[in-house]
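Record type: monomer structure entry
Structure origin: computed from sequence
Chain ID: A
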Amino acid sequence: VQLQASGGGLVQAGGSLRLSCTASGRTLSSYNVGWFRQGPGKEREFVAAINWSGDKTYYTDSVKGRFAISRDNAKNTVFLQMNSLKPGDTAVYYCAAATVSGEPGYSGSWDYWGQGTQVTVSS
């Protein structure tokens, strides 16, 4: 499956963005999907994940209460709604997909990766 992340941009602190992850080649509905990010000079880190049916979600502590992951399988898309953005959220955001459930925070659990989309939060 080929993944495409989009929706990044430049936003002021406190603002919102919604990222989208779409798939081509196969339907995304049978995949668990996750979002990771890599900030400048930092390692890639887990942000959020959702299982294939959408009834289980996972978040890293730093985004709980601010970010929400959801999916619309009819549109073959997974969303990451990001609210109350902070400068520390500045990063390239990547979506990933997997058919087998593993530890969501572990990058090795994910089989497919999309290209990143840049999110820049200004203070």
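Annotation 1: The chain is about 0% helix and 50% strand.
Annotation 2: The chain has a mean pLDDT of 95.
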